[in-house]
Amino acid sequence: MARVLVVVVVVVLAAVVVQDAMAQMPVMPPAVVPPAVPTTPPASAVPCVAELEPCSQFYKNASMKPTRACCTPLKKAYESELRCLCSVLTNPAMVGAVGIDRKKGLGLFERCAVKVPADSSH
HSE of 103 in the Cβ direction (CA atoms, 13 Å)? Predict the structure, then answer.
């Protein structure tokens, strides 16, 4: 019986020593995790989209007739940056990042009288 009591006392003392040691350990601040790097660039980083900022109000309101400030850069982008425009309008991640609807985007070309081949809407 005495041995059991000694073992219990040793275990209790060991637990107290461990608790005391842990209480004296410095508390580490939580690890700082850097934010995730976006896989899709923001609209302002896509040149063919950034140049079309004057079109945003006409894109949002289809009943408004686009001005020259919108249609001129849109036509220029179509003529010289078609690959960029197509990559934006056909890539679901880009469409979401830029926040445009593909059909509305293509409709803006029509409203600006920019001739886009019929198969471009696919």
Answer: 1
Domain coverage including residue 115:
43-121
Q: What is the CATH classification number for the domain harbouring 78?
A: 1.10.110
Helix axes 102-111, 82-90, angle to 10 degrees: 140
Q: What is the pLDDT of residue 9?
A: 37
> In which residue ranges of the chain is pLDDT below 50?
2-18, 21, 122
Please indicate, yes or no, if residue 34 is contained in any of the structural domains. Answer: no
pTM of the prediction? 0.56
Residue 61 lies in a domain: yes
Q: How many CB atoms lie within 10 A of CB 92?
A: 9
Smallest CA-to-CA distance from 99 within 59, 54, 39 is with: 59
